[in-house]
Specification:
alpha+beta; 13 helices; eight-stranded antiparallel beta sheet
Length: about 350
């Protein structure tokens, strides 16, 4: 049973959402009184409540989505809230739909989106993974954080070839090493207010770390937003090369660490925008003519299921006219299809830019 203090916070949070006239989050849209009343007393076996799910969106009324899953079970127990949000965000992935099985496709059929190097500055593909048997951030104990970091670092130390590299724990990391990794766009920063409000930053920096290979083209983040973020990146527009590296890494790591997977939703992660394939393929790209009108850029991008963000990702501005453009859909399609969607969309944007 949910305790009285939690219920009180839930009621207050619900009232706050109802009263917020300028809040456009999916949480506000779908947390009706009926849904709220049916879910407010529920608790997962990890002890998570509806408060864990909605607290970030209640505190940050400017959230786009506003919910997080405190553990893998939450997607099932609080499905009345998660399902319509998932359907809205993932372009009509209905609660009767089933995410397809993992399929990286013919990795050699993905090419370079900008062979002349005129527009694309860098390319990256990443996926999120959760380790089976552990809850997500808000419910992890300090001991679990340490245990997971140990598992991740020993697993990664077994990687060979171009994936071979070093694991750097955040605990005890020298400030200059930390700053260098942040400047290289490698290291995540503490203090994202959306994650903090979701209780995802407890015991920081315990159990957090970053691994990168010697060429700095392959990274793994441990216990930032998700248990694992597997990232492949390099300068230029050779999406094929970046994708192949990611596929090799994810396949290799999965042999050693079992991941949380759901029959209907695919790979499970902390944020419902990131389910299914969890694949986000993106480029840093300069499109000066198209971007002269940001609204127009966003309209054109949306036509190809692409999402436009600022240079440093979500909630940031474009620096020097450089935008981060990625595939928006991660569910209801295979890993290969998600990457191909981004590939084809970027080719179209470049074609339009050249014609202006």
């Amino acid at each position: 049973m949910v305790d009285a203090a939690t219920l009180e916070k839930l009621e207050a949070g619900f009232q706050k959402l109802q009263a917020a006239t300028d809040c456009k989050s999916l949480l506000k849209k779908y947390l009706t009184k009926e849904v709220f009343d049916s879910l407010k007393t529920k608790k997962t076996s990890f002890g998570s409540t509806l408060l864990d799910v909605i607290q970030s969106g209640v505190e940050n009324l400017d959230s786009g989505v506003g919910v997080y899953a405190p553990d893998a079970e939450a997607y099932t127990l609080f499905a009345d809230l998660f399902d319509p949000i998932i359907e809205d965000y993932h372009a009509g992935f209905k609660k009767t739909d089933k995410h397809p099985n993992k399929d990286f496709g013919d990795v050699n059929s993905v090419g370079n989106v900008d062979p002349e190097g005129q527009f694309v500055i860098s390319t990256r593909v990443r996926c999120g993974r959760s380790m089976e048997g552990y809850p997500f951030n808000p419910c992890l104990t300090e001991a679990q954080y340490k245990e997971m970091e140990e598992k991740v670092s020993s697993t990664l130390s077994g990687l060979e070839g171009e994936l071979k590299g070093t694991f750097y724990p955040l605990t005890g990391m020298a400030k200059d090493v930390q700053q260098k990794l942040i400047d290289d766009h490698f290291l995540f920063k503490e203090g994202d207010r959306f994650l903090q409000a979701a209780n995802a930053c407890r015991f920081w920096p315990t159990g957090r770390g970053i691994y990168h290979n010697n060429d700095k083209t392959f990274l793994v983040w441990c216990n930032e937003e998700d248990h694992l973020r597997i990232i492949s990146m390099q300068m230029g527009g050779d999406l094929g090369q970046v994708y192949r590296r990611l596929v090799n890494a994810a396949t290799d790591i999965e042999k050693r660490i079992p991941f949380s997977h759901h029959g209907r939703l695919g790979f499970l992660t902390f944020c419902p925008t990131n389910l299914g394939t969890t694949i986000r393929a993106s480029v840093h790209i300069k499109l000066p003519k198209l971007a002269a009108d940001k609204k127009k850029l966003e309209e054109v991008a949306a036509k190809y299921s692409l999402q436009v963000r600022g240079t440093r990702g979500e909630h940031t501005e474009a620096e020097g006219g450089i935008y981060d453009i990625s595939n928006k859909r991660r569910m209801g399609l295979t890993e290969y299809e998600a990457v191909k969607e981004m590939h084809d969309g970027i080719l179209e944007l470049i074609k339009i830019e050249k014609s202006l």
